[in-house]
Amino acid sequence: MARSTARPVIRLKSTAGTGVTYVTRKNRRNNPDRLVLRKYDPVASEHVAFREER
Q: Model confidence at 36, in pLDDT bands (50, 70, 90)?
């Protein structure tokens, strides 16, 4: 099955400045803006906002 361009792979980078990243997919049609999720940063040992990087 082919990968769709509507759901690209994106990288989420920590806003705490630790350099930690997560990899996920998003639906460009429903979320055209940059994605921001609160996830756990193991270096900072707390939940912080992770922003989509391009």
A: very high
